[in-house]
Amino acid sequence: MIRSRLSPARRGLIVAALGSSLTVSWASSYYIPAVLAAPMAADFELSEVWVFGAFSMAMVISSVAGPWAGARIDSQGGRGVLMLSNIVFAAGLGLLAVAPTPPVLFAGWAVIGLGMGIGLYEAGFATLTGIYGNDARGPITGITLIAGFASTVGWPLSGLMLATWGWREACFGWALLQLSVALPLNACLPVGSKRGDTSPRPVEPGPPPSRLAAYLLAFVFAATWFNSTAMATHLPGLLQIAGASPAASIAAGALIGPAQVAARVLEFGLLRRFHPLVSARVAAAAHPVAAAALVFFGGPAAHAFALLHGAGNGILTIAKGTLPLALFGTVGYGRRIGWLNAPARALQAVAPLIFGAAMATWGLSAIWLTAGIGVASFFALLVLRRA
């Protein structure tokens, strides 16, 4: 580890640089379909379902690429992998911008999926662990604080470029930002650790990580990503089914971002005194409690639902980086976090479809599906023991 050679100012710059580059990467991949899917589909005379299907394909590809990226970061450090991700993102966005036919559009999304597998949070967490070792919890929280504003920045900027130039030019604009902003920021990162042995084993003293613990953690990550993606896609419609007006639904949805950031500030301050399992259990319970409030109180509880769900989701995003570190140690961290999050990425691809079908069939009662998943996550975290 190189932490001892870094001044406090340098450590702050590392977090700021990585958090800012991840903001660009999230904004130009995960968050562009919400704004650009409709004009993309219209240009090719397709249903929007086809564009979201291409995005789902990208999520599956990202789940396959993640373990390779993590193992590479374990052995060579994260700077090179993150810089490669910026080039891959730019290539995928460029393909979208020039796509003459739907197959090329799908190819562009496939390339973006590869970029997502090697250049989003998991890669950032592994990079920080290579730099800071067991002290990476604070920096991990720091980059999620910054990148938590990706939708706040990304959606308006995508909308502005769409209105000013068009969706193809918007994709070119994001590709340019990948190369001119994110790539130089990642180039400023230290190389991090270089280890020849990347086999997963714990930091001594302590028992080897059990298969049960790994399976439980993978389940928790998959369950929480499913709920997060389902809510991100269907929240306004769900709140209107509960009785909130369209304006109130949009206003409530706007609270999720600030709630996530506020919860991460809490994690950075008060909750960092506790083991990550403690904050993760509290966060996992937040969505089921919010769901019960929405069912029993209806539309008037829309804002409370958004705040509770957003706060829980904000802390659980950090837990995806800090829990594997706390439970299993630093050795083999990148490869392990890639495998632990692979099922989550795959479930993200189908979450909008599954929850949308549940809403169409059950109405507001569909929220019990995500509430039940949240309860199962909470009990899985109770079974896990402090390393």
UniProtKB/TrEMBL annotation:
Pfam (any one): MFS_1
InterPro entries given in the database record: MFS, MFS_trans_sf
Signal peptide (UniProt feature, chain positions): none
Keywords of this entry: Membrane, Transmembrane, Transmembrane helix
GO molecular function: transmembrane transporter activity
Residues that span the membrane, as ranges: 51-69, 81-100, 106-131, 143-166, 212-232, 238-257, 278-298, 304-327, 366-384
Name of this chain's protein: Predicted arabinose efflux permease, MFS family
Taxonomic lineage: Bacteria, Pseudomonadati, Pseudomonadota, Alphaproteobacteria, Rhodobacterales
